[in-house]
Structures are given as C-alpha cells and as structure tokens.
C-alpha cells in the first residue's frame, strides 16, 4: 500500500495511544514520519522502533507544542531532516477530570495551550510550506467537543474550539489546495481510560451501540483516509468515530 508514498507527516503526541497508531498507519502507507513528544521518551522510542521495523523512515523530536517556540522548532527540524512538510496531525492533548469551579488558572491555561493553541501554532507554521503543492491538516478532536461533558469542561471547550478552527481554516485554505479536517473519537481503548474499573468499563461499553471501545488503529486508518487523496474532495469536516455513542 502506498497512498502516502513520498509524503512527510508530523504527528504530535505520537509516543503512545492514538498518536502512535496514527504514526504507524501513515507509515504503512508510505509516509515518512516525524514523531513529536514532550515527555514520554520511552514511549517515543517504542513508536520509533515500531516504525523502523516496518521499514518506515522516522524521526523523533522532543518539543512542547504548547509553546510557539516549541512548535517552531518542530517545523524547523522537520525541514532540516526531510526538506518539506505535507501532513500535520495535531494529536497532542491533555485531559483532566473535575468540577470547573475547582480548576486553577494553571489548569485552564495549560490545557488550552496544549489542546488548542498548540494545534494552531504548529498549523500556522506548517501552512507556508504547503502552499503551491497542497497539503493536509488533521486535528484530533473528541466527541465531547461537539456535545460537551460534565466534569470535563476544559477538555470539551478546547476540543470545541479545535472543531471551529478546523471548519474556518478549511474554508480559508481550500483555494490553496490545503485540506483541513478533524476526527472526533469516542471512547478509545488507550491508557487514558485505564483508570476505569472493570465494572465502569462494562457499563460504558453497554452505552455504546457497537458494544465495545474503539481501537487506536481504527482512528489511525481513518487518519490515512483523511490525509490521502481518497478524501480529496473533503475539507472542513469533523468525522466522528464513536461507535454510534452520540
């Protein structure tokens, strides 16, 4: 398979979970992959090894995308290493549980900086390198960005903002052949949900029409579709992948 042969893709938050799955699936389709991470060095090495075992050309960059300078370094190092940027997948995100009235200023600023501003910074810096040849921006949102979740107000707000960023930028960049879409995952079987007890997990599964959690690779395969020419007439869309939950 080579839907992305010759493309260079940056995936933020690619040291584990959905980010790793997206990196692997894009790599399988021929893309060279830039693995971005901020803290999980061991996880980033595991993603790098998994890609190289598949014969994928991959490179890891440790930078915090929530700072403009960090995003700038990600772009600069990608250009130094590969000479171009074709695909940006804004996946890096933080999540917190708790009442909004208990959130601190640091909680609010930290989460919004990573989940929303980080995506905006990296995309702004990548777009000039896509002009004239086309490109794809894919934002990893959440079903909660559409309907909101109690005790996840900050997370829901950041993802709702990401959705509107996706729709507005898509209209702006469509004449330049740069497509901008988002995936809104439902409950995906990653470490982020490892805090659930077996009973809580079963209760949640019963609420999902397909009767199970989603798999990270299912998000990865959706990412391939939205980053490849298979979706060449699709832009400004939020594709919910939630097993029918919402």
> Which architecture name does CATH use?
3-Layer(aba) Sandwich
Topology order in helix (H) and strand (E) letters:
EHEHEHEHEHHEHHE
Give start-end ranges of low-pLDDT stretches. Answer: none
Mean pLDDT: 96
Shape: globular
Spatially, the strands of the biggest sheet line up as 3-2-1-4-5-6-7
Separation, N- and C-terminal Cα atoms: 33 Å
The CATH class turns out to be Alpha Beta
Counting helices, strands and paired strands, the structural category is: alpha/beta
Most strands sheet: 7 strands, parallel
- Gyration radius, to the nearest Å? 17 Å
Strand content: 15-25%
How are the SSEs ordered, and which strands pair?
Elements: E1 8-11, H1 17-28, E2 32-37, H2 41-53, E3 58-62, H3 68-82, E4 87-90, H4 105-126, E5 135-140, H5 144-147, H6 153-173, E6 178-185, H7 198-207, H8 216-227, E7 238-241
Parallel strand pairs: 1-2, 1-4, 2-3, 4-5, 5-6, 6-7
Helix pairs in contact: 1-2, 1-8, 3-4, 4-6
Written description of the protein model:
Belongs to the short-chain dehydrogenases/reductases (SDR) family. This is Short-chain dehydrogenase. InterPro entries: NAD(P)-bd_dom_sf, Sc_DH/Rdtase_CS, SDR, SDR_fam. This protein is of the alpha/beta class and 246 residues long. The protein has a single domain (8-185, 216-241), classed as 3-Layer(aba) Sandwich (Rossmann fold), CATH 3.40.50. It is 44% helix and 15% strand. It contains eight helices and seven strands, in the order E-H-E-H-E-H-E-H-E-H-H-E-H-H-E. Strands 3-2-1-4-5-6-7 form a seven-stranded parallel sheet, with helices on both faces. Helix 4 (105-126) links the parallel strand 4 (87-90) and strand 5 (135-140). The longest helix has 22 residues, at 105-126. The radius of gyration is 17 Å and the shape is globular. The two termini are 33 Å apart. 43% of the residues are buried. The model has no long low-confidence stretch (mean pLDDT 96).
């Amino acid at each position: 398979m080579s839907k992305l042969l010759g493309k260079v893709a940056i995936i933020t938050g690619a040291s584990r979970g959905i980010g790793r799955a997206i990196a692997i699936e894009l790599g399988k389709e021929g893309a060279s992959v830039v693995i971005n991470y901020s803290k999980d060095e061991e996880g980033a090495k595991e993603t790098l090894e998994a890609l190289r075992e598949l014969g994928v050309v991959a490179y890891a960059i440790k930078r915090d995308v929530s700072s403009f300078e960090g995003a700038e370094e990600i772009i600069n190092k990608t250009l130094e290493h590969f000479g171009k940027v074709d695909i940006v997948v804004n996946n890096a995100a933080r999540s917190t549980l708790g009442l909004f009235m208990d959130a601190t200023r640091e909680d609010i600023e930290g989460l919004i900086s990573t989940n929303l501003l980080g995506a905006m910074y990296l995309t702004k810096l990548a777009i000039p390198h896509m002009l004239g040849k086309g490109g794809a921006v894919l934002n990893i949102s959440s079903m909660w960005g559409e309907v909101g979740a109690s005790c996840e107000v900050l997370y829901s707000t950041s993802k709702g903002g990401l959705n509107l960023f996706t729709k507005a930028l898509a209209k702006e960049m469509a004449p330049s052949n740069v497509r901008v879409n988002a995936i809104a995952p439902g409950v995906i079987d990653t470490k982020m949900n490892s805090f659930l007890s077996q009973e809580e997990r079963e209760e949640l599964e019963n609420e999902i029409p397909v009767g199970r959690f989603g798999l990270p690779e299912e998000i990865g395969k959706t990412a391939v579709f939205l980053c490849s020419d298979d979706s060449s007439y699709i832009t400004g869309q939020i594709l919910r992948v939630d097993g029918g939950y919402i």
